[in-house]
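Sanity check. The docking grid for cobalt (II) ion depends on where the pocket ends up, so I'm generating a full predicted complex first rather than guessing from homology. Inputs follow.
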Amino acid sequence: MSFFPNVPKIRFEGPQTRNPFAFRHYDADAVVEGKTMAEHLRFAAAYWHCMRNELSDPFGGGTALMPWDDKSSTVDNALKRVDVFFEFLDKCGIDRYCFHDRDIAPELNNLAASNAALEKVVEKLGAMQKATGKKLLWGTACLFSHPRYAQGGGTSPSADVFAYGAAQIKAAMDATHALGGEGYVFWGGREGYATLLNTDMKRELDHLARLLHLAVDYKKAIGFKGQFYIEPKPREPSTHQYDSDSAACLNFLREYNLLPHFKLNIETNHATLAGHTMRHELVVAASAGALGSIDANRGDTLLGWDTDQFPTDLYLTTEIMLVVLGMGGFTTGGLNFDAKRRRESHEPEDLFHAHVGGMDAFARGLKIAAAIRADGRFDEFVKQRYASFDSGLGARIEKGEVTLQELSEYALGNGEPTLASGRQEMLENLLNEFI
Ligand code: XUL
Ligand code: CO
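Predicted complex below; grid placement will be based on this.
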């Protein structure tokens, strides 16, 4: 039985095809820089957007047609969604997925019942993974939807809520471990504040770090080898979220001795909400050796919230792939489409058009980034720009061999320095040669 009878298996047909259910650029087995496209891009689908997002917005309810879903909070309904999701993954040629505990299984009347429901669905997911070869990129716990988390999970003023959140993380880590997850994400949706009038910031940050240390300890106890990630986002739902951007996350992790245990999962629309470009956020993380994974989507310049649209902009995907190739590729991470269709795109087949477009946009970004690297002109320009530090005085500065006194004497004798152009426009033109 098929849940998407009108959608064929999506295959690579090349740029000239007129078939909307085909890849124009994503050719899973094509080799770029010594690896296949599938190995480079490590695509994942988000269970929450594909299976649970009803496509509501602040002004209207859901529009998504999900004829397989009886809308009940039963385990049977949850188990049926697994079949639908795996048909979707198969037809799209996506090898990995990500979930929150409450996406895959219902939250029931009490924690024990919710945990039991989760275990049942995990059993089925495990069987489906085994049958199909699909993998779990990462799992996570939803500590932001239920009203008990309205004032935070790890940063809640209530110790009982903190304990409930910890219990949920434990169960979600067990699930991720059982499914051979390559990673586990912490996104602090409610780990922030609405007003400082009622908030002890220092205490909340201490609590959040305590929770993460408890998770690190538990990870060791159960032998879970997946990578932990923090996912930065500045706001929405909170007015201010503590893990606001890459730099803030790295500072928090360093301050609380957590950096050895975590990398970052960077999302495009979160970068732009923080007032940064995606490339900025990626470079900040990669420079600290902490770029782990990517939530692939984009925002809308005309809307000020987290629209989670599918990525189609080739400048964006090229810049992302330049950073990913530059760090030697993903290890545990991948490109997770944390993206949803527009409210107007309510038919099941729109799920496929959305992912096909995102996959093709990244395939092109990969090919363009590889061409830029093979050409070498950008690298050479940047190298030359800093050449004064390669020898002589500059090299001694980098090695820490000169004092402020010596530099003063040098500058007094050297006269006014001359500066070469940064050539931004020339480089923008050069980028357009490749796009
Ligand atoms: C929310 C968001 C989350 C995380 C996982 O903006 O991106 O879905 O990716 O909790
Ligand atoms: Co995300």
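Relevant for the grid: Residues 231, 267, 295, 338 surround cobalt (II) ion (ligand 2) (CB under 6 Å).
Also worth noting: The first strand starts at residue 11 and ends at 12.
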